[in-house]
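User: Could you check the structure of this?
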Amino acid sequence: MALSLVLCACGSSSEQPLPSIVSVTPQSMAANAKVQLTVDLEGAFPFKVNYASDSANVDSPARLSIADQPFDILRSEEQGKRLLAEVGPGLPEGEHELRIDLSDGRQVTFAQHFLVTPDPDPDPDPDPDPDPEPEPTYDISLSIDQIPTQIRLRPFSIRVRAAGEDADIFRGSVTLKVSRGSITPTTCGPFSAGTCSQEITLDAGSGADLTITAEDSGGHIATSNGFQLRQN
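Assistant: Sure, the predicted structure tokens are below.
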């Protein structure tokens, strides 16, 4: 049986000129990042000769190190002159030595340092429950126009008026309530030119002295005259 031997080429590796690192891309990374480095080299590389097949192959470098932390070579290209390695997170911040360990035991160091930068500051979390903008205050008073006798569940309109220094600029709404029974809808607004009109429906037992109140967010309150609600 023929025995094929793969032997190192003649001559000591120390006699070969040491390759050099031409470039490293990228030359920096954030401490928490993961990047793929491309390292370009030039010079003579260790190679193996297979005398059985009469061939010689470049013996690719085995490992890349940054800050003495080793990273495996993913693959080599262009006869070993371009190396691709994946560098994971966890390197300390600062400038560090980048080194290639050749298969024959020699080491090649990048003339420039490899920079590990601090992690970028994360965007501050928005306030999950921001305080609402305070309601503006208005110098107004409210009143409700005279309400005549009404019929249960028959829609009719009411008008709420704002008076005072800020009446013309008041654009708020008021909450409507009835002294007994129910009122639909329960809001009137927004105001325009100092007034607000709203069609409403009342559901309550018949009787006199029913009143409607209107209140804005600033605590201004108006109460209507007492009026009668008939069933039909």
